[in-house]
Each structure stands twice: as C-alpha cells, then as structure tokens.
C-alpha cells in the first residue's frame, strides 16, 4: 500500500456545529498523520477554483452559497492508502444513506450539508492541496507512534 496524501475540508456545517475536534480525532485515532491544518473563509473565487468541474452545473450556485457561508477547516492528511481510507471514513455523500460508524452516517442527514469533503483520487488530492496550501505550510515529520500504526512493508 502506497503512502498517500489527501485533502480534507471540514465544511461550514461541521464548523458551525462544533464538530471539528471530534472529526479530527477520528482521523488521528485511525493512525493518519496531519501535515497541515488551517481555518479559512472560502471566497467565491476559491470556490470556483476548488469546484471547477461543477461551475457550469445547475447545482453549483447552491454549492457556492453553502461553502462560502462560514469558515472551513482545511487539512492535508497522510497515510497508507489515505485517499481510500478517508473516503471510507466519510461514508456516502448523502448522510441519510451513510452507514453508522462513518462520519456522515454518525453526524449527517443531508446530501449537500454533508460536513466534510475528501479528495476522490491522488490526482485530485494533489490539485486541491495546491489550492489551499503552500508547500512551506506542510510539516512532514516522523511521529513517535508512527511505527505502531502499520508494518514497515505497508508504508
């Protein structure tokens, strides 16, 4: 399993509902490493850059209104197969359909207000990380417990 980086965004509903600490803990307890973390306000321009593939779709204006409605928390997460691991932790896009035990299954009831964005591929992660973080904002380090998360041949 390859060591991957992925992008995660706690959306305005997660921030407003004061779930960020709880959600961050789930990633850390899973053994994933946080390389960068910051709170920011998404502008209309940043929204268009992030969701470029959706800008001309009928639902985009509602998406833009939502993602710019309040602060978000952006982060870069690293770990073996991080993209797939994070996506599985999030659950289905629609919280009503997400199984219990997933973030959306435990905390969500909406398709649009679904708390968290996670990159859908290594390529998307690289693009999204570049939108939200400068290289010097990421801190790559060995963690004290890193060797206890998975075997060396799984990294």
Structural write-up:
There is one protein chain. The protein is an alpha+beta fold and 155 residues long. The chain has a single domain, classed as Alpha-Beta Plaits. Helix content is 36%, strand content 19%. A four-stranded antiparallel β-sheet has the order 2-3-1-4, sandwiched between helices. The longest helix has 11 residues. It is globular, with a radius of gyration of 15 Å. The mean pLDDT is 95.
Output the keywords.
alpha+beta; 4-stranded antiparallel beta sheet; 7 helices; Alpha-Beta Plaits
How many independent structural domains? Answer: 1
Shape: globular
Count of extended strands: 4
* Stretches with pLDDT under 50, minimum 5 residues: none
User: Quick one: CATH class?
Assistant: Alpha Beta
Main sheet makeup: 4 strands, antiparallel
Q: What structural category arises from helix and sheet content?
A: alpha+beta
* CATH topology category name: Alpha-Beta Plaits
- By CATH, the superfamily comes out as Nucleoside diphosphate kinase-like domain
Helix content range = 25-40%
């Amino acid at each position: 399993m390859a060591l991957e980086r992925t992008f995660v965004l706690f959306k305005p509903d997660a921030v407003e509902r004061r779930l960020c600490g709880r959600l961050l803990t789930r990633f850390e307890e899973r053994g994933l490493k946080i390389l960068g973390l910051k709170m920011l306000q998404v502008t209309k321009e940043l929204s268009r850059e992030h969701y470029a593939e959706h800008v001309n779709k009928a639902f985009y204006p509602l998406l833009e209104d939502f993602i710019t409605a309040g602060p978000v928390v952006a982060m870069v997460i690293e770990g073996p197969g991080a993209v797939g691991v994070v996506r599985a932790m999030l659950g289905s896009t629609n919280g009503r359909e997400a199984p219990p035990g997933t973030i959306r299954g435990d905390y969500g009831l909406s398709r649009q207000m679904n708390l968290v964005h996670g990159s859908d591929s290594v390529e998307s992660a690289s693009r999204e990380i570049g939108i939200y973080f400068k290289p010097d904002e990421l801190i790559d380090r060995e963690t004290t417990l890193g060797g206890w998360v998975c075997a060396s041949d799984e990294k």
